[in-house]
Specification:
The chain is α+β, with helices and mostly antiparallel strands. The protein has 2 domains: 2-55, Alpha-Beta Complex (Molybdopterin biosynthesis moea protein, domain 2); 66-313, Hypothetical protein af1432 (Orthogonal Bundle), CATH 1.10.3210. The chain has helices at 38-46, 68-90, 98-113, 131-149, 151-157, 163-166, 170-177, 188-197, 203-216, 222-230, 260-275, 286-293, 304-313, 399-403, and strands at residues 2-5, 19-20, 28-30, 51-54, 243-244, 250-251, 322-325, 330-335, 345-348, 365-367, 376-379, 382-383. The strands form 4 sheets. The chain has a 6-stranded antiparallel β-sheet with strand order 10-9-8-7-11-12, with no helix packed on it. The longest helix is centred in the N-terminal third of the chain and has 23 residues, at 68-90. The chain is globular. It starts with a strand and ends in a 12-residue tail after the last helix.
């Protein structure tokens, strides 16, 4: 199977996965196995469908990286969050049932457990609901995926708890999904200004963290409420809100003084916001957002270990992606390594046809980690040749190295 941008879809291609309706929960525009027609492709594009998963002989093994159950759970969460945010905007007080949100998170974790190889972010998670709900769902999904990768780190950072309790991801997921609930309490002009500019220095916009905490502090577990309050804290101490100290000074926490859940949500939130920055339509490729996170000022904002986890679950070039190499050849990403994420293994496709015939000569596979003269230049129609990045050292991005306890995580920069 292959993920094809809607602009490159052709009549005769056969869907490997159904196409969910972008506005109607649990409804599908087309089912898997449907053959595309020109009229259907045009209608899908009109409805805002960005890409399609199609059947492609020789790439059947890529199904291991796709988890429809998890994607459906995320879509359902988007719909439910949209209702929650709408209620929060209309009412002075909103009843938040932690048990309901916990069940939703546990359901998402169960879907992930069904296929551990698919525990990566392979494409945008749409779904019926507002942009704020889409963002909340995406941040929740990313946070849970990172939390699973960071189980060893959670135990270390929450050392006063039992191992089992330290690794309980339900509060993380709930805090992640509701991290921006305070945005519903901002004046319309502040929300509009933020949507247009994305200016994080806007003091009126910054109030949303405290407003959100006030909404949830008496209704959610402390760890979940804390993630809502502190999801804009930064590893270098330049985040917000500040915390009053015994001396009377108000200082933002830094480093490991920030709760690990807030650090995870901060990374997921920033990654998704960079991809969906004002004016970014379609969303920026994952590699572009990740490359930005490695530059100033963002490189000092994230816990280095959490950044490694983000790389492990949100690959720059996810398996199944259609890309163009620096020599002009079209290829499909078929495998990748978090240790050198911008150099995946690709399979040369040649001209993209509606349905290649079975029995064609075996296509060439290239491991870009060894083919150093080649790189990926285009994904989803966007030029990313300047966004590829390499690890500073062999083990720079190797999360498992730290999980094995062979070294201590360096403090300071995310890369």
């Amino acid at each position: 199977m292959l993920r094809v941008p809607i602009a490159q879809a052709k009549a005769g291609m056969v869907l490997a996965l159904g196409v969910p309706h972008p506005a109607v929960p649990k409804a599908y525009l087309l089912r898997d196995g449907a053959a595309l027609e020109d009229r259907a492709i045009a209608k899908l594009a009109e409805l805002g469908i960005r890409d399609l998963w199609i059947r492609y002989p020789g790439l059947e093994d890529l199904v291991q990286y796709v988890n429809p159950g998890f994607q459906n759970a995320c879509r359902e969460l988007t719909s439910n969050l949209s209702a929650t945010f709408d209620a929060a905007m209309m009412q002075s007080r909103v009843e938040l049932e932690f048990s309901d949100y916990r069940r939703a998170v546990v359901g998402m974790l169960e879907r992930i457990a069904e296929n551990s190889k698919a525990a990566i972010f392979v494409n945008d998670l749409g779904g019926p609901g507002s942009p704020a709900a889409r963002h909340g769902s995406a941040v929740c999904a990313l946070s849970l995926l990172m939390g699973l990768k960071l189980d060893f780190y959670l135990v270390r950072e929450r050392a006063r708890m039992t191992s089992q309790r330290a690794k309980d991801l339900a509060p993380l997921g709930v805090g992640a999904m509701l991290h921006d609930v305070g945005m519903t309490r901002l004046p319309p002009e502040v929300s509009a200004r933020w949507a247009a500019t994305g200016n994080e220095d806007d003091s009126a916009w910054r109030e949303h963290a405290l407003l959100g905490f006030d909404l949830v502090k008496d209704q959610l577990e402390p760890a979940a409420a804390g993630a809502v309050l502190h999801h804009h804290q930064r590893w270098n101490g330049s985040g917000f809100p500040c915390i009053p100290s015994l001396s009377g000074a108000c200082i933002p926490p830094r480093g490991s003084h920030i709760h690990i859940f807030a650090r995870i949500v901060a990374a997921a939130d920033l990654f998704d916001r960079l991809r969906h920055a004002p004016g970014a339509d379609p969303a920026l490729p994952a590699v572009t957002a990740l490359a930005q996170l490695r530059r100033e000022p963002f490189t000092n904002w994230l816990d280095p270990m959490v950044f490694r986890a983000l790389l492990a679950v949100a690959p720059p070039y996810a398996p199944g992606s259609l890309v163009r190499l620096s020599d002009g050849r079209e290829a499909a990403v078929v495998a990748w390594s978090p240790e050198d994420p911008c150099r995946p293994t690709v399979e040369i496709l040649g001209a993209l046809t509606a349905m290649p015939r079975r029995g064609e000569p075996s296509r060439e596979r290239l491991n870009l980690r060894t083919e150093r003269t080649l790189s990926i230049a285009v994904i989803d129609g966007q030029n990313v040749s300047s966004e590829n990045f390499d690890p500073a050292s062999k083990d720079d991005f190797d999360l498992m190295r730290y999980a094995r306890g062979t070294s201590q995580a360096p403090k300071g920069k995310a890369a």
